[in-house]
Amino acid sequence: MEEDLLPIGQFARLGRLSVKQLRHYDELGLLRPAYVDEQTGYRYYRAGQAREALSIGLLRSMDVPLPVVAQVLAGGPAALASVRDGLEAELARRRRMLASLERVMAEGLPSAAVRVVAEPARRVAMVREVARGLEDVGRATSAAVARVLGCVPSGGPPVRLIGLFPMDVGEVVEVSVALVLGDDVGGGEVGGGAEVVVLPGGVFACATHVGPYEQISLTAHAVLAWCAERRHTVRGPIREVYVSDPAVTAPERLTTDLMVGVEEE
Hints:
Multidrug-efflux Transporter 1 Regulator Bmrr, Chain A; 7 helices; alpha+beta; about 25% strand; 11 strands; 8-stranded antiparallel β-sheet; single chain; about 35% helix
């Protein structure tokens, strides 16, 4: 055995990693010992490997996943782009949460004027998108809106869009956006992958949300609380009827009617 090899405990102190971490990284092939004693199984490292150990510790402190760490150590720093994108998305989500929290702090727990409305069945052009969790719902909704708006000729009458979201949100969320069709629009005139269906009518608890789309969950909470207090059985999906055009309306002035189907006990 070469004299410049360090036992695992000494190398751990040098590389600012624990012995347990070094063993784990060895098993993953991320940081192999320079020598393993066949009789004792003891691991030994060279001092020159300390830079690699410190680099692993630095990247892990920035929440870089181990597979990406391996790519970076292999000379692929571009792999960090996906980590950066993920951190930016998480930061945006945290900012939205902070804005909602500040609204609750300023106005108290959400409450809203809830009314009961009867909605007729409507013919709609509907498209669906899959969101990868709650934080991805905004992107999926925007994509669905863009797709459905491309399904009908431009220059026609003002469109009415309805977003449909499941009551319970899991790791995968199916988001649908429906465009209400006029009687003069036939199924053959709708393209772009949209499906012409009938959106069921019924009785709904409805409240008007004024403010950014990211804070609609506050109004949804108020509507669901109102239904629970009156022992109404709720049924999904939750509907968002977009009254304002976000292209010409400031986020704090956006108006959205939030609707939850109800059945009186």
